[in-house]
Structure of Alkyl hydroperoxide reductase AhpD:
Amino acid sequence: MALDALRSALPGYAADLRRNLASVVDDGLLPERQLWGALLACAVAVRSAPVLRAVAPEARERLAPQAYDGALAAAAAMAANNVFFRARHLLSDPGYGRLRTGLRTNVLGAPGVPKADYELWCVAVSAVGGCGACLDEHERALRRTGADRETVQEALKVAAVVQAAGTVLDAEAALPGTD
């Protein structure tokens, strides 16, 4: 299992991260499709090759093709939306919020997976992307599907551990004296 190798690759100083990653994957609250879709979407969002190489093959095994593609679609849509909406929100001129967005988001209407799954993946990726506007919008949409706060928090935990694993492994590859 490539994810086991990923956990093993984390250095000693990241022992808590190793445990947190194991906990989210092995003992988390999310059903398998939501979990593996969130792991895949976040692996794309963090842009860490070691993380993506570990997560993607296992996600492909565990997810139906539509769910695999849906998770990738969530990552792609949020890659643009997190930047756009975060920047628009950060601008001090509220007039930008009244302008037409002009970005296509057709996938939101037909993601090919249950709405709850897609919205959960969007929440997780938006946590990685740091977009409060997207987090709020997708959290509300996810809650309208019947998801509770614990489910939302679980998606945030997935995002946090995937982001941290990518940060640590990329730093280890760049540090002098590590191979």
The chain has a mean pLDDT of 94.
